[in-house]
Write a structure and sequence with these properties.
By secondary structure, this protein is α+β, with helices and mostly antiparallel strands. Helices cover 37% and strands 12% of the residues. Strand 5 and strand 6 form a beta hairpin. Helix 1 crosses helix 3 and helix 5 packs across helix 7.
């Protein structure tokens, strides 16, 4: 029975278009199946092979072995890509989440133009994460599981050091970025994301799409 269960969980993971949680895998297996043990066995079976079993934010999927990724690149035409400003905003959200729009602007030292958050939201890399329990109850932003999966991170703690990010040019080196830290955590817990999310605060309402490289962003 164990052999059949191992083959079944292997097939489910291969056929899934997205990483799956243990609970989702358990639904496809006989009651009482030790899913964690099967995942360990499957991981050992694929260790060192061209495709490996990986865990991303408590979800499981098959991915190309990291040492082979560079040999599988396919040249494609990319019509649009994130602007430098959008990339910087994504980095700020990742390192300071949950973070509000005003806090993003404080770190960058420049107003956040319309369309930037829309771009990141539509890419599936950021999401609303409740409202800050402060005057005005501003909307907070955080990264998604798709963000982790796209950048090959098991957890948000696996992000490179801030100094490495600044050295690569992805994050501004203004002093405010050093002093800020994760101050959002000290300003009060978020409320339920479903509670009182008015349309004016959500992506899709901002009319200008300036999050791509071919648009003007944040005044420079």
């Amino acid at each position: 029975m164990t052999g059949d269960a191992l083959r079944l969980i292997e097939a489910v993971l291969f056929s899934s278009p997205r990483p799956l949680e243990v609970a989702e895998l358990a639904q496809r297996l006989p009651p009482g199946t030790d899913v964690a043990a099967l995942l360990r066995d499957l991981g050992k079976l694929y260790a060192g092979r061209g495709i490996e079993l990986v865990e991303r934010a408590d979800k499981w999927a098959f991915r190309t072995a990291p040492d082979l990724a560079g040999r599988l690149h396919v040249e494609t035409t990319q019509t649009k890509k994130l602007s430098r400003a959008a990339t910087e905003v994504l980095a700020i959200i990742a390192y300071n989440q949950p973070v509000t729009r005003a806090e993003i602007e404080e770190i960058r030292g420049v107003a956040l133009s319309k369309g930037t958050l829309d771009t990141l939201f539509e890419a599936g890399w950021v999401r609303p994460k409740g409202r800050r329990r402060t005057p005005g109850r501003p909307l907070q932003w955080a990264t998604t599981d798709d963000f982790l999966d796209h950048f090959g991170l098991e957890a948000i703690e696996d992000l490179p050091d801030l100094k490495e990010l600044k050295a690569s040019g992805l994050l501004d080196s203004r002093p405010a970025a050093d002093a800020y830290g994760n101050r959002a955590a000290d300003l009060g817990p978020p409320v339920d994301t479903e509670e009182s999310l008015d349309d004016e605060s959500l992506p899709g309402v901002e009319s200008e799409d300036e999050g791509f490289e071919d648009g003007r962003e944040d005044g420079g």
